[in-house]
Design a protein that fits this description.
- The structure holds two protein chains of two kinds.
- Chain A is of the alpha/beta class.
- Chain A folds into two domains: 218 residues, P-loop containing nucleotide triphosphate hydrolases (Rossmann fold, 3-Layer(aba) Sandwich), CATH 3.40.50.300; 74 residues, Alpha-Beta Plaits.
- Helix content of chain A is 34%, strand content 30%.
- In chain A, α6 links the parallel β7 and β8.
- Chain A is elongated, with a radius of gyration of 24 Å.
- Chain B is an all-alpha fold.
- Chain B is built from eleven helices and no strands.
- In chain B, α2 crosses α5, α3 runs antiparallel to α7 and α9 packs antiparallel against α10.
- Chain B is globular, with a radius of gyration of 19 Å.
- The chains are: A alpha/beta, B mainly alpha.
- At the A-B interface, β1, α1, α2 and α3 of A face α1, α3, α4 and α10 of B.
Chain lengths: 307, 261
């Protein structure tokens, strides 16, 4: 049984007399124990989809099963077993970090020692000890983000939804947060669904990724599958001294693109073939001063899909 | 979910209102200053107009009732207002809580504050204007307060419903609804002096009957307290059901997301 199964989810928002459709027939399945990424440019519908998955809002059509239950009917039972952390989070301003977490834990029905233990563990996990008695309004963006993450583990959720979890964090804290997500994921054996703009983060964390563009699911797979499916080649650059015939480079099997600069050639090629040795052979008669190969990353996939 | 879990979901709203209130100097004004100033002004007016004891009682009952109503209804409205102002509504509604958890929790805090306001105003009116607030007995006070708290909770829920249906600008309802109540339910005058259509409206408002009930102890004729309590209960249940529908509608329209932005 998958952790989440969506069939033809669609959603539109009405404002005055205008209706804007933001999701079109999204169908996907997320397996238990998976870290699943939802990527896409601004306005692609990521947050709306995340809000539907976490039962905060209802879809207009389609069906959604979360943890084996109908998410349009059994919302209350599902909410007991999931949690969400949003980017740029807000909590009641005049409550301290600890009070906000205590209040959130009460909303999940925690009481007595289990409430206190959950709050203390969350404060400790996200290194919020020094700020625990500070009012939420006095925290930095990064600290607010950590409060939101701490809140999201209070009820030991089976599915954790993370909407832009490292948004606004400095690089060190973003790295720590990614490590914490991995740690929680490994220790609690939970399913994580996350949205992010930061491609290295998705590549580092996600087992599979769904790409959304203008409310439509345009690609779904592992990072490797997506790169292969889109035939995004490796990049090679060669700096040289001497004469090289660019035509020789263009006819090499697997070479997809050649860009000539003064004393430097940049090429995109299909790494699955034997293009590299042929490329180097084409530089016979010239001195190769420097050479480098870059693998395609998720950023390239994103740019390709966002076009 | 165990009964302790259910109880803690209810108490979550009480806890939040308590923490926010104790940090806010404004709360002291809400609880003591404005009700006291209102009562003092009305009481001094009765002195200036040289009203008899029965008329003083009539007016002071209205002043006390209005203060209790305002303080208790705002506590229920705070379910959404605090979250609305801090843009944190989705933190509450992504959690497994239902409308009644939030309403009962906030109402509990509203009852505590309402009783505190009653004690302050009853003591002040007794000391300053010789008003015997126990003329009808303790049971009369308890029934009057219970009906007022139920009515206040319904008004607070209507504020929440308005916000969920119409967005942030509807928060103005929090301060206008009790004003309308003051006008039509005879807080400072008998409803018989209202124009015909407003009299019909006043008959549909529980506060009208609650005021008549309390005032009957001071010689102001008959009362229909059972009808008043029945109406208060009916509106309370209806408001709770409509609040749940409004929450679900806000999930469908996306208002739940917009209120958090």
């Amino acid at each position: 049984m998958p952790a989440l199964r969506a069939e033809k989810i669609c959603k539109s928002f009405k404002r005055l007399f205008q209706e804007k459709k933001v999701l079109f027939d999204i169908s996907l399945s997320i397996e238990r124990g998976e870290i699943f990424g939802i990527l896409g440019p601004n306005g692609a519908g990521k947050t709306t989809l995340m809000s539907i998955f976490s039962t905060l809002i209802r879809p207009d059509g389609g069906s959604l099963e979360v943890l084996g239950r109908d998410a349009l009917r059994d919302t209350h039972a599902i909410r007991e077993r999931i949690n969400i952390s949003s980017g740029n989070p807000n909590f009641p301003w005049s409550l301290t970090v600890r009070e906000n977490l205590q209040h959130s834990a009460m909303l999940y029905g925690l009481s007595g020692r289990s409430l206190q233990r959950s709050v203390e563990e969350a404060i400790s996990a996200f290194e919020l000890g020094p700020q625990s008695d500070a009012k939420f309004e006095t925290l930095s963006t990064g600290q607010k983000q950590r409060v939101s993450l701490a809140k999201s583990i209070l009820n030991r959720p089976e599915i954790l939804f993370l909407d832009e979890p490292t948004s606004g964090l400095d690089p060190e804290m973003a790295m720590k947060t990614r490590d914490l997500i991995k740690k929680i994921y490994q220790e609690e054996e939970i399913t994580v669904v996350l949205t992010t703009h930061y491609m290295p983060e998705a590549e580092e964390l996600c087992d599979r990724i769904a790409f959304l563009r203008e409310g439509r699911l345009v690609a779904l797979g592992t990072p490797g599958e997506l790169k292969r499916a889109l035939q995004i080649g490796h990049r090679i650059f060669v700096e040289y001294d001497g004469e090289v015939d660019p035509m020789k480079l263009r006819i090499i099997p697997g070479v997809m693109e050649v860009k000539e600069l003064s004393g430097r050639v940049e090429m995109v090629f299909d790494h699955s073939g034997r293009a590299v040795s042929s490329i180097i052979k084409a530089f016979e008669g010239a001195d190769i001063l420097d050479i480098g190969i870059e693998e395609p990353d998720l950023e390239d996939v994103f740019l390709e899909l966002a076009r | 979910m165990s009964w302790q879990g259910e109880l803690h979901k209810v108490l979550s709203a009480t806890y939040k209102n308590w923490i926010i209130s104790k940090r806010n100097a404004f709360t002291l004004f809400e609880l003591v200053f404005w009700p006291f100033i209102g009562l003092l002004s009305i009481g001094l007016l009765t002195r200036f107009l040289e009203l008899g004891d029965d008329m003083v009682a009539f007016v002071l009952v209205g002043a006390i009732a209005l203060s209790i109503l305002q303080i208790s209804q705002i506590d229920v409205a705070y379910i959404l207002l605090f979250d609305l102002w801090s843009k944190s509504i989705k933190q509450t509604f992504v959690a497994p809580v239902r409308g009644y958890h939030l309403v009962l929790g906030a109402m509990l805090f509203g009852v505590i504050r309402g009783v505190a306001v009653f004690i302050v105003l009853a003591a002040a009116s007794s000391h300053l204007f010789g008003f015997d607030f126990l003329a009808g007995g303790v049971a009369t006070v308890i029934i009057f307060l219970a009906g007022t708290f139920l009515t206040a909770a319904s008004i607070g829920m209507v504020v929440c419903i308005s916000i969920l249906l119409f967005g942030q600008r509807a928060d103005v309802a929090a301060w206008t609804l009790s004003g309308i109540m003051m006008l039509v339910s005879g807080v400072y005058y008998p409803v018989s002096i209202l124009p015909g259509p407003l009299q019909i409206l006043s008959k549909s408002i529980p506060l009208t009957y609650l005021l008549e009930y309390y005032r009957s102890a001071y010689g102001y004729g008959d009362h229909q307290i059972l009808l008043g309590i029945a109406l208060a209960l009916l509106y309370f249940v209806a408001s709770l059901l409509i609040l749940n529908l409004a929450i679900e509608r806000a999930r469908s329209t996306g208002m739940m997301l917009r209120l958090s932005e």
